[in-house]
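Q: My labmate handed me this sequence with no annotations at all. I'd like to see what the chain might look like in three dimensions before we decide whether it's worth expressing. Could you predict it?
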Amino acid sequence: MDQKINHHCAGFLSLIRQKRPLIHHITNMVVANDNANAMLAIGASPVMALSRLEVEEMTAQADALVLNLGTLNPEIVESCLLAGKAANRKGIPIVLDPVGAGATQFRTRSAKKILTEIKISVLRGNAGEIAALLGEADTMRGVDSMPTRLSPSVLARSASQNYGTVVGVTGKIDYISDGSRLFSVRNGHHLMTAVSGTGCMSSSLCGAFATVDTDQVLTSVSALGFLGVCAEIAGKEAVGPGHFHSVLFDVMYNMNTKTLASLLRIEVES
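A: Here is what I predict for the chain of 270 residues:
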């Protein structure tokens, strides 16, 4: 572990709390409340505007945009495109969470359309979703990742090179790449897979962290590491998934940069 990188990444948390960025979400009904609470816990401000009649106007006020395809329909795709183009005009970061890409043709096509028509800053998904966006078949069962032919580290680098964006592939170990650099984050807890929304929260956190530095690889590394560290602490206290879910937000709220820097397990991969 590189302590210099750990301290640098941990410092982003203080910057978020100083800046209090507004993060516009076009997200899914399953996790909207969790995403909002995660933003509030770290000192950011969430807003969830979905209608095509207002997404451009709302995005114009925001510091970052998070597009989550969890509960997808054609109207949501249209709203994502309108908001994404408004974000590109303003020059703010956009995070895309291609929930369930690979599970249906509609989801895969929609994610690819957004990636084609909008400049995405960070693409964050599980191995199955990212593999599907690279043309691999049978990578998803619903929104759960199936074993993939390519390793998560290779997927991160390949997808980044293919789509020209930072890619985070999350799982037991998270891998983040900009096509040349590759980092791993080895923080986390097994209860993260026992509650809904932790993956979606990680995308929201990537959006918030992206507002305080232009190096979207390191901001994404920091965001994923932050969630992993908080999950480790919450997991030690929790007696089960429900308790873990509530404790996680308390840990996020009380996290400080010194503790975060000391517990981050970030590796620079060759």
